[in-house]
């Protein structure tokens, strides 16, 4: 018998995050953890790509306080 794991045949993929065989219920990932890792990375990238690059402190102020506005 030379047939590999039937599960990996049916799914035919590897987890894009860690490269382990894909798990059916987490397709195309191997686990919830890898799913969320990839999602987080994807969100991070799509957040960074558009628009001008913000300085670190500027970006931090933005995410904490929203757009700068004068109070009073
Ligand atoms: Zn994985």
Automatic annotation (TrEMBL):
<protein>
    <recommendedName>
        <fullName>DNA gyrase inhibitor YacG</fullName>
    </recommendedName>
</protein>
<feature type="binding site">
    <location>
        <position position="30"/>
    </location>
    <ligand>
        <name>Zn(2+)</name>
    </ligand>
</feature>
<dbReference type="InterPro" id="IPR013088">
    <property type="entry name" value="Znf_NHR/GATA"/>
</dbReference>
<comment type="similarity">
    <text>Belongs to the DNA gyrase inhibitor YacG family.</text>
</comment>
<dbReference type="GO" id="GO:0008657">
    <property type="term" value="F:DNA topoisomerase type II (double strand cut, ATP-hydrolyzing) inhibitor activity"/>
</dbReference>
<feature type="binding site">
    <location>
        <position position="18"/>
    </location>
    <ligand>
        <name>Zn(2+)</name>
    </ligand>
</feature>
<dbReference type="Pfam" id="PF03884">
    <property type="entry name" value="YacG"/>
</dbReference>
<keyword id="KW-0479">Metal-binding</keyword>
<dbReference type="InterPro" id="IPR005584">
    <property type="entry name" value="DNA_gyrase_inhibitor_YacG"/>
</dbReference>
<comment type="function">
    <text>Inhibits all the catalytic activities of DNA gyrase by preventing its interaction with DNA. Acts by binding directly to the C-terminal domain of GyrB, which probably disrupts DNA binding by the gyrase.</text>
</comment>
<dbReference type="GO" id="GO:0008270">
    <property type="term" value="F:zinc ion binding"/>
</dbReference>
<feature type="region of interest" description="Disordered">
    <location>
        <begin position="53"/>
        <end position="72"/>
    </location>
</feature>
<feature type="binding site">
    <location>
        <position position="34"/>
    </location>
    <ligand>
        <name>Zn(2+)</name>
    </ligand>
</feature>
<comment type="subunit">
    <text>Interacts with GyrB.</text>
</comment>
<dbReference type="GO" id="GO:0006355">
    <property type="term" value="P:regulation of DNA-templated transcription"/>
</dbReference>
<feature type="binding site">
    <location>
        <position position="15"/>
    </location>
    <ligand>
        <name>Zn(2+)</name>
    </ligand>
</feature>
<keyword id="KW-0862">Zinc</keyword>
């Amino acid at each position: 018998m030379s047939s590999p794991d039937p599960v990996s045949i049916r799914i035919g993929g590897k987890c894009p995050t860690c490269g382990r065989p894909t798990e059916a219920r987490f397709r195309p990932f191997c686990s919830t953890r890898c799913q969320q890792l990839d999602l987080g990375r994807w969100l991070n990238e799509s957040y960074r790509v558009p628009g001008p690059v913000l300085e670190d402190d500027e970006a931090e102020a933005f995410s904490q306080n929203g757009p700068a506005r004068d109070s009073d």
